[in-house]
Design goal:
Elements (H helix, E strand, L loop, with lengths): L2 E4 L4 E5 L4 E5 L4 E5 L5 H13 L3 E6 L5 H4 L2 H8 L2 E4 L1 H8 L3 H7 L20 E2 L10 E4 L8 E4 L4 E9 L1 H7 L7 H12 L5 E6 L7 H21 L4 E2 H12 L5 H20 L3 E6 L2 E6 L1
Parallel strand pairs: 4-5, 5-6, 6-7, 10-11
Antiparallel strand pairs: 1-2, 2-3, 3-4, 8-9, 9-10, 12-14, 13-14
Helix pairs in contact: 1-3, 5-10, 7-8
């Protein structure tokens, strides 16, 4: 864990639960793509940079989930580096309580206010700032989170953030987190057609060919959608739908999984309703969902 893996002349990744990308701009300066899940991850990343004689110029955040920005505050405090982000992701990075609040749909209890869902705050600079390295391509990858992006490097390496997961991750979590299901499926189509010397997803092996894995992620989305529709053959409330998914996939419920899977299921319900596959009815002061 936390080994530095070289994948091109200027690009590396640090192998950890959410891969940290490294782009070496020149012999002295390097950029990180995300910063890991906490202060300890940031410290280990800095140790790797120091051993190689690389100064941390900036962190390029793909999105604001806590496991991707958890090392921001430590690294910024230690080096004074800039942290680049954009859109809603920048707001979540500056005000991290927004993540558990959004997931829960209200003020989050203490069970949700921890480093797994809420990083420490850090100051950010927008991608549009003139200091942003113009040789890098910011690639919009919406769907998993609000304004998630990937980064295309000059030597053909593409860091894909969380837009695809490994088979193992899909099997383990069963209902991977998605904010906008329609946008996510469109992103998969776009990524499937991309060309690169190497793709680096945060939660899957780096590979020059990711088409099969894209298909696996798409199949998972369609499977979850079909299970929801099956539950809704008869009118069902949200809590009942969530219960059936947890039981059907053999998941264990706690506050974190209730928030993460629950938020995702609400996104599926919105997508299926907008696609006219589900109808929403209000009955006896309850919102019920039924297959259209």
């Amino acid at each position: 864990m936390y080994e530095l893996v070289q994948i091109s002349e200027k690009c590396y990744y640090i192998n950890c639960p959410a891969k940290i990308g490294v782009y070496v701009a020149d012999k002295d300066n390097a950029y990180l793509v995300d910063s890991g899940n906490d202060k300890d991850a940031g410290r280990k990343a800095k140790q790797i940079l120091d051993r190689n004689g690389w100064h941390l110029t900036a962190i390029l955040n793909t999105h604001s989930n806590a496991d991707h920005i958890g090392g921001n505050k430590y690294l910024q405090g230690q080096t004074g580096c800039k942290i680049y982000s954009g859109g809603i992701e920048a707001a979540f990075t500056k005000y991290p309580v927004l993540e558990p609040s959004f997931l829960y749909g209200g003020y989050p209890c203490k069970d949700l206010r921890h480093k797994f869902l809420m990083a420490q705050e850090s100051s950010v600079t927008d991608f549009s700032d003139e200091s942003f390295p113009r040789e890098l391509e910011v690639i919009p990858l919406p769907g998993h989170f609000f304004n998630m992006v990937g980064f295309g490097m000059p030597d053909g390496v593409v860091f894909l953030a969380d837009c695809i997961s490994s088979r193992e991750t899909l099997e383990k979590y069963a209902v991977p987190f998605i904010y906008d299901v329609g946008a996510y499926l469109e992103t998969l189509v776009m990524v499937e057609g991309m060309q690169a010397s190497m793709f680096v997803p945060a939660h899957a092996k780096a590979s020059a060919d990711i088409k099969e894995l894209v298909c696996c992620n798409r199949d998972k989305v369609l499977d979850v959608a079909e299970r929801i529709l099956s539950v809704c053959e008869e009118p069902a409330c949200f809590e009942h739908i969530l219960q059936k998914l947890f039981q059907g996939y053999g998941l264990s419920m706690n506050f974190e999984q209730y928030a993460l899977v629950g938020s995702t299921v609400r996104s599926y319900l919105s997508w299926l309703k907008d696609s006219e596959k589900l109808a929403a009815v209000f009955q006896d002061s309850m919102l019920l969902w039924q297959r259209a």
